[in-house]
Amino acid sequence: MTGAITSYIDVAQLVLYAFWVFFIGLIIYLRREDKREGYPLDSDRTHRTDRIEVQGFPRRPESKTYKLAHGGTSTLPRPPDPIPAAMEPAEPWPGSPMLPTGNPMLDGVGPGAYALRSDKPDLAFDGQPLLVPMRIASEFTVESRDPDPRGMEVLGGDGQVGGIVHDIWVDRAEPQIRYLEVQVTENQRHVLVPIGFVRVERYRRRVIVRSILGAQFADVPGTAQPDVVTLREEDRISAYYGGGTLYAEPSRLGPLL
Q1: In which region does residue 202 sit, left (phi positive, over 0), alpha (psi from -120 to 50) or beta (all else)?
Q2: Which of 4, 20, 126, 137 is paired with 204 by a 20 to 30 Å CA distance?
Q3: Spans in the chain with pLDDT lower than 50
Q4: SS3 142
Q5: In a domain, 170, yes or no
Q6: CA dist 19 to 6, 13, 23, 28, 55, Å?
Q7: Separation between Cα atoms, residue 113 and residue 172, nearest integer Å
């Protein structure tokens, strides 16, 4: 028989076995590489003085240092950053849901959870901040057939005015609006609202943000610089509005049915 090594094994069979070994090795390699971020997990069985690391199989790979496009380096995997989430388990057994212990929209729990991303802005190909207000990106304009929200009142889910739209933040890489900058009525702070939480009512000349109440605009996490938002600040801002979808008022905590 052509290709036969013995009466039971031939070259085609060896090639098939070699492919199986290669494919299993490839899966293990890719599974290790995708654990460079997010691992190890912290077990909810962790005691106050102990820390249980959950890695699963296979274990995390050895650390590797990457050169970043705009300078600097990043070493992965790295020890997880501790997130100061104010929470406690609802019940004493493992797997119990976590409940916020302070301001639920700022505690980093549930729909208000966020990651401690880099405290630097996202950059465009030329090294400039990617997301900026239109007072900086003067080459951007609002299409004449679309409503310009600047100057409109911003109402919360309770119909109360939270502030006035001061400016529009755009994505320099795409012709997209990312945030509305709102001057808060209560304390005159300038805060950002992700455009995904916004509904602009053209004819009534107002902006609706249903995820939070009018008075809650005063506590939206701010930015360290007036014309720049970092990746970490973006996550915290989005988490605040996300948390509001559940925690903004007590009636949202109950079941729908």
Answers
A1: alpha
A2: 137
A3: 47-49
A4: coil
A5: yes
A6: 20, 10, 6, 14, 28
A7: 27
On whether the CB atoms of residues 241 and 193 are closer than 8 A, the answer is: yes
The predicted pLDDT at position 3 comes to 58
139 alpha-carbon distance from chain centroid: 28
Which pLDDT score, from 0 to 100, does residue 206 have?
96
**Domain CATH number, residue 194:** 3.90.50.10
Structural tokens at position 37: 């971020």
In whole angstroms, how far apart are CA 32 and each of 55, 73, 77? 10, 21, 11
pLDDT of 107 reads: 87
The two tokens of residue 25 are: 């090795």
> Quick one: pLDDT at residue 95?
76
Structural domain includes residue 224: yes
Rounded Cα gap, residues 115 and 81, in angstroms: 9
Radius of gyration of the chain (CA): 25
Q: How many domains does the chain have?
A: 1
pLDDT at 1: 55
Domain that holds residue 248: 131-252
Contacts of 76 (CB under 8 A, 6+ apart): 36, 37, 63, 64, 66
Q: What pLDDT, on the 0 to 100 scale, is given for residue 37?
A: 82
CA 118, CA 66: separation in Å to the nearest integer?
15
- Domain-located, residue 173: yes
* Domain annotation covers residue 240: yes
